[in-house]
């Protein structure tokens, strides 16, 4: 089935288009995490595995990227391989979308641009690892991720493992409050910090079931309150890296970044890569584990939101 209401600038796979047309649950996935968030080949293995998890739980995965200038909703295995292995894939946030589309080049989409393209396609649930946010030292660098402003305007629920302490977690939560974005701890009173279940910050709200997340999404958008919902899902206990341990590594990665003079859009990819090096790959294992965990929750939320709860086939 090829729905006719699709946006003319998007290419949606038949699988995703059919699921959307039938009102079946769909989960968006981003591609910066593939191209700029993890090393090859763990990145493509993760991307393939996560799509499989979503599918096995009765939802349709839609990994999003720009290929040859065309925003794509749903990718083939070859596309994932290209995004994972080519050095010339641009990291594309919202401000970069016009450039990559007009130039006909490849782009890996961040949380912000993935949200925007997902919403254009009619997808309301998105699974990722970690959000961008307010960087430490933002009072002088002004480095605040466009992920936050996007969450203030675009109607997509984002399942993540919280915010890494490469960012200023407290300021990120303040900014999300200012932007009117509900931030819920999933099964947790504490806001998680990606590698660790704890962050030292309380989650502003707590929700314990996928059905309750879906109810919040309906309430928010039903009231005309535009913008996203952050579902902060703590990494499983058995996979976490204790906050004090990873904290020292993050401080060292930040110092190395400053010494190299790296800033702007290169900051997050540099820090993620440096943390993998400094932990001898332990951070990568934790990162993959938390994405899997988020995929399971995202599929369940998508099913509830679509009125297709687990148990109904
Ligand atoms: N945090 C991670 N892994 C990632 C990113 C953030 O743990 O891959 C990526 C996401 O795509 C996020 C982006 O949207 O980095 C934020 O980049 P910036 O801070 O430049 O907005
Ligand atoms: Mn930035």
Automatic annotation (TrEMBL):
Catalysis: reaction(s): D-ribose 5-phosphate + uracil = psi-UMP + H2O
Active site per database record: 30, 164
Molecular function terms from GO: hydrolase activity, acting on glycosyl bonds; metal ion binding; pseudouridylate synthase activity
Keyword hit for Hydrolase: yes
Pfam families in alphabetical order: Indigoidine_A
Family: Belongs to the pseudouridine-5'-phosphate glycosidase family.
HAMAP family listed in its UniProt record: PsiMP_glycosidase (MF_01876)
Name the UniProt record assigns to this protein: Pseudouridine-5'-phosphate glycosidase
Gene designation per UniProt: psuG
